[in-house]
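Re: the 312-residue chain
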Amino acid sequence: MAKILIIAEHDGQTLNAATARAVNCALDISKEQIDVLVLSNAGESLAEQAAKLSGVTNVLVANNPANENPLAAILAPQIVDAAQDYSHVLAPSTTFGKDLMPRVAALLGVPQISDIMRVESEMVFQKPVYAGNAVVTVEFPAGLTVVATVRTASYKMVEEGGSAAISSKTIDVELPTHTQFIGVEGGKSDRPDLQSATRVVSGGRGLGNGENFDIIYSLADKLGSGVGASRAAVDAGFVANDMQVGQTGKIIAPDLYIAVGISGAIQHLAGIKDAGTIVAINKDADAPIFEVADIGIVGDLFKLVPELEAAL
């Protein structure tokens, strides 16, 4: 019998939508038992959110002061202890999951599958390779705990309506001291999180400089959307690297994706291929982005974007 443990991603107060997508993947593996593990310093409210996700059987809350500022080195030993009775351990393929799950796999002494995009059976999965240009089928070795990350762009969020049981989980393991939390440096924004936003506006090198990104921010605020950027814009120093969308950035699947001044390099397209509707604005009619765009507008972005915003 498959018993699946999903590691909840959260910011201490709110459960990340990527967790609900991981639950959807788990339902494709088995509907028999899907538990969610909340590692926090005070995770009761987070557990209540997780318990509402359809398909979840139990929510386990492991409170520990060391979890107040989650570090992969601190969380991984706790997950290994909690995972002893489970056949599968899953986490979203977000920055959080990509940082955490390799450590879990190493401590368990098993391989890891990254970016599950389709489940064929309890031990057979499909995942993208070569920047999403090919898909491979991989079979996990029999008798080992499956450790994997879920490509969140490939799965919709499960709906709420569940009523999973919530229980406290005691985890008594020695935590490493070689890694310590010092602080967090990052921009604060009231805009939706890039990886969970249903609408995203992204800018590229065509904007020319960081100051010109103001028209992207303005349009995004009008739409209530998240803001992203191409690697070229990030490498040029226009915006911070946590805004990068693409193979080496964040892979997203919003309902609406607006690409402004983005040529459409293959690495960028790999990060948006699962978007619902792609709108491209570029002065180059031959830009690769138009090959995947549902709506393409050729022209001066500095004229078209303000006109689009004014029409909303």
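The mean pLDDT is 93.
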